[in-house]
Amino acid sequence: MSLLGLGAMGHALAAALIDAGHPTTIWNRTPGKADALVARGAKLASTVRDAVSVSPLVVTCLLDHGSVQETLGPVADVMAHRSLVNLTTTTPNQAREFASWADDHDVAYLDGGIMAVPAMIGGPGSAILYSGSSTVFGDHKPVLDLWGESTYFGPDAGMASLYDLAMLASMYVMFGGFMQGAAMVGAAGVTATEFASRTTPFLAAMTAGFSGFAAIIDAKNYTGEGQQSLEFSDLGKIVQTSIDQGVSPDIIAPVQALIRRQIAAGHGKEGFSRIFEELRAGKK
Ligand code: FVH
C-alpha cells in the first residue's frame, strides 16, 4: 500500500501497517516526517508520482478535500487502474465528487470516515466507516481491519462521510452541553473537574436512552406513555438558571427553541423526541 499524508493520523495509520508487517510506501508534502517510520521499515517515496506508481492500493489521509485534489490531480494518469481509499474528512458531496473524478480516471474509489483519534488506531474502539466501491472494500478488508473495525455502508461514496459527520454532530452537541453545565456550576465556584466527575456517569447512563428515542422516531409515534411532555419540560428552568448564574444560555437555548416551535405547532403533549420532526422540517 502507498499512504499519502503523515500528519498525526497518517503517521498512526502507517505505524499500524508497519507493525503488522504490511509492505508500506509513504509520502508526505513536507519532508522529515517520515524518518521514524522509515526506521521501522516503511519505504519513503520522494514524489507523489513515485508513491502512487509502486502500489495497486493508494490511501490518502490529508488535511481536507482541497489538499487531496492538489495532491492527486497532477498524477491522475498513474492513478488509473488503481484503487484509492480516501480517509481524509470531507463532506458527503465532496466524497461523491472524488468518486466521480475517480470514475472519470478509471480509479476504483472507496471513501472512509475515521471514528478514532490517532492513539486509538489499531486498538480497541477504533472504527472506520466506508462507502463507495464494494470491490475495493472486499479486496482490501483484511488490511483495512488493521486500523480498526471496518464497516461498509454501500455504494454511495457519500454515506461514510454522512455517518461520520452525523456522529460527530451528536458528539459535539453533547460536549457543548457539558460546557454549558460546567459554566453554570463554575459560576458558583465549582471546578470543571468536580463537575466532570458527576456528569460523566450520568451522561453515560443517559445515552442508554438513545434506543428508546430511536424506536419512537422510527415509529413516528411521539405520544407514548412514560415520556415527559414538551409542555412539562420546555427547558425553561435550565435556561433561566443559566441566565441567573450570569452564563450565556447559547448552547441550551436552541434546543428550547425547537421545543417551543413544536409546542406552538400543537405538539406540546408529545415527548422530547418530537424535536426530530422540527429538525427534519429544515431551517426556518
Ligand atoms: N487527528 C484526528 O484526531 C482526526 C480523527 C478523525 C479523522 N481526522 C481526519 O484525518 C485527516 C488527517 O488528519 P491529521 O490529524 O493527520 O491532520 P494533520 O496532522 O494536520 O496532518 C495533515 C496532513 O495533510 C497534509 N497536507 C495539508 N495540506 C496539504 C496540501 N495542500 N498538499 C499535500 N498535503 C497536505 C499535511 O502535510 P504537511 O503539512 O506535513 O506537509 C499532513 O500530512 C483530516 O482530514 C482529519 O479531519 C483526524
What does this structure look like?
The longest helix is centred in the middle third of the chain and has 28 residues, at 159-186. Helix content is 50%, strand content 12%. It is α/β, with parallel strands linked by helices and 284 residues long. It has helices at residues 8-19, 35-39, 48-53, 65-72, 76-79, 92-104, 134-144, 159-186, 192-206, 210-219, 236-244, 253-267, 275-280; strands spanning 2-4, 25-27, 43-44, 57-60, 83-86, 108-115, 127-132, 149-152. The protein has two domains: 2-155, 3-Layer(aba) Sandwich (Rossmann fold); 187-280, N-(1-d-carboxylethyl)-l-norvaline Dehydrogenase, domain 2 (Orthogonal Bundle). The radius of gyration is 23 Å and the shape is elongated. Strands 3-2-1-4-5-6-7-8 form an eight-stranded mixed sheet, sandwiched between helices. Helix 1 links the parallel strand 1 (2-4) and strand 2 (25-27).
Blueprint (SSEs and pairs):
Elements: E1 2-4, H1 8-19, E2 25-27, H2 35-39, E3 43-44, H3 48-53, E4 57-60, H4 65-72, H5 76-79, E5 83-86, H6 92-104, E6 108-115, E7 127-132, H7 134-144, E8 149-152, H8 159-186, H9 192-206, H10 210-219, H11 236-244, H12 253-267, H13 275-280
Parallel strand pairs: 1-2, 1-4, 2-3, 4-5, 5-6, 7-8
Antiparallel strand pairs: 6-7
Helix pairs in contact: 8-9
The structure holds ligand FVH.
